[in-house]
Each structure stands twice: as structure tokens, then as C-alpha cells.
Amino acid sequence: MTTVFDTYLRTCTNLNDSEIEQIVSAAKPVSLHRNETLLQQGQVCRHKTFIVKGLLRIYGIGADGSEHILYFSPENNWTLDPESYHQQTPSQFTIAAIERSEVLLWSKPDFDRLLKDIPELTILSEQLVTRSHISNRQRLFTTLSSTPEEKYENFVQTFPDLLARLPLHMIAAYLGISLKTLTRIRHAQVRR
Amino acid sequence: MTTVFDTYLRTCTNLNDSEIEQIVSAAKPVSLHRNETLLQQGQVCRHKTFIVKGLLRIYGIGADGSEHILYFSPENNWTLDPESYHQQTPSQFTIAAIERSEVLLWSKPDFDRLLKDIPELTILSEQLVTRSHISNRQRLFTTLSSTPEEKYENFVQTFPDLLARLPLHMIAAYLGISLKTLTRIRHAQVRR
Question: CB within 10 Å: which end of chain B, N or C, has fewer?
Fold first, then answer.
């Protein structure tokens, strides 16, 4: 399982062999079955998670009881709830597997120690935060400004690989539109 | 103008006198009149901005030509477009003053140099990014999951001080609802 992560680090960073070994050896590999929960709303997010294989989602439950998906995290991505992780407070979000998944977990104390010991890992960490920050703003702007049709078109362009892996109700819960509206949009596209 | 910023730094950080002096002396004070633009969509975001006095907004224009506000930035806050600033690419957003404002600007090379020279400033910078990251997620979740009534209620709770300083159409453009809907919600509240 660590080979994928090893390749990821070699591609994205200038970490040397011994640093990579140090990071890998601190990780705990975990297998998740389909629909298994990694972080439950109300629990403290105690780990950084790297997705080696599979697909996870992070979502919250609205006042009306419905699920709203913040992000999908496929292989070669990280996931966590930053608020719960950094402040060690109960999370208002749930992280769960959509497919059978293989992930690597680092506890906060372990990852903090790695960040302290390996400056190059701090650079990667800052790049990830910046990238996440940028995509958050982009997603907020799309959510505020786009019509349902534009939101779906944008999703198809941005995540072509995810389309076939996701049930429609999850795409609707990500776009912030009803399943009925999403179905109508897709039918209209097929007819065009 | 730098007294406010000086107090802010002494409150939020453990920076010493000489470090504060170094940061302050690299800042360029700028006065903005009402509605004046600090960053125009299409320009590169070349500065970090601290708001000493007044109120700014960062917004984008949707495909239908309407304004969508990402954030309001009152005094004692920072603003920038992180994507444009970090990648030095044209911004898709505009930053403008809502009120007469006094701001401090640092060019990217100057701020990068300060970050390199002053580790304590890096800590503040990381805290700000983490906080911004957290509030982005919160805002995204509220935008996805809440009814217009809940969005307005949430805004009143979160920014009680801003209510009287903002025209209604800007609150609507921030909440992602029409001015008509916002007016209806406010009338219903008054009647209750």
C-alpha cells in the first residue's frame, strides 16, 4: 500500500529516501469497506489521511436532515476536517468511503513531529493548504454564482473520472441541487 | 495608521519590537475612497492587505453579469486573492472598498522576505491561513445546506457589527439570495 504513497512523494516533493522512509513508517494503513465511516460527526478528527486507493467523501447534515457533500477525495489525495484536527474539537462533518478504499493515517502528534523534523514536508503541507484554500474559494464562487446547469457542466469538466464512480444522489448533494433537477439536466443533455 | 496594526500584532503574536518595526516599515499605507477598487478582476494580486480602518469586499461576476461576494473584510483583517497572489496569475475577483478605508500593503517579494527573516510571522501567517480555511468550509457548508432564512439568521449572528454598514443588495450578494427574498425575510422578522 505504501508504494503508491512513495511514488506520490517522489513526484510531488524533493524528499530524500530516508525522509520518505521516516514518513511512511509513521503511517498506519487501514482498509475501509464501502460506506465505512472514517470520521463520524461529533468525533474529533485525530488523523491526516492519504487515500491510496478508492474514493472518500466529507459531508455534513443540514437542518432538514439531508446530506451536503463538501469534497470528494479519490486516490492520491488527502482528507481531513481542518477545524476539528487543528483545534481537536468535535467535527461537524463525517468522512466515509464511497468505494472499498485503502488509506494511510498519521496521528496529529506523529505528523506534527514529522513536520518539525522534515522541513521539506512542511513545504508540501503548505502547498496542499494553499491548493485547498484556492479550490475552496473556487467552489464557493461556483456554488454562489452558477445555475444548476453550469454547476453540473463544471463538475463534468473538473472531475471527468469521478462521474462513473458516483451515484447521482451524491453528485446532487455535492452540487447543492435536488436529484430531480440533476436528472432533468442530464436528460436534456442526452437529447441535445 | 500603523498604530492600529502595531496593536494588532502585539495582541495576536509574540513578535518583539524590532520585528514589528521591520514589518511595519515594509508596509505601504494607502487610503481608499468609497467604492475605490484595490484589485481589479484580470489584474495580478501583488499585495497582502491589512485593513486598518473601513470595510472592503472581494467579489466575482457571474455568467449572468451579477456580483457575488466571497468575503467582507472589516478593520483588523487581511484580504487577498490567494490564487492570484501565490501563482501571480490574473485574478478572477475584484477587491473594493465599501467605506472610506485605510489599508497597509506589502508586496509579495517584501512579504516573502519578512516571512523568511521572522519565524514568528510565519506562525501568524499559518494561523491566518488555517482560520481562513476553516471559515471557507463553514461558509461553503452554510451556502449548500441552509435555507435563505437560515443564511440571513447566521449572517446576523456572525456579523452583527456589519449589518448597519452594508447596503442590502451586498448582503444578498453575499448570501447568494435575491434582494427580493432578503427583503421578504427581513419584513417577516420585523412582523414577528
Answer: C
Q: How far is residue A85's CA from residue A97's CA, in Å, rounded to a whole number?
A: 19
Are the beta carbons of B3 and B23 closer than 8 angstroms?
Answer: no
Contact A146 B62 (CB under 8 A): yes
Distances in Å between the Cα of B25 and the Cα atoms of A30, A183, B103, B128 are 51, 58, 14, 21
Query: Are A133 and B82 an interchain contact pair (Cβ–Cβ within 8 Å)?
Result: yes
End-to-end CA distance of chain A: 44
What ipTM was assigned to the predicted interfaces of this complex? 0.89
pLDDT per residue as tens digits for the range A12-70? 999 999 999 999 999 999 999 999 999 999 999 999 999 999 999 999 999 889 999 99
Of the candidates B153, B188, B189, the one whose C-alpha atom is nearest the C-alpha of residue B171 is B153
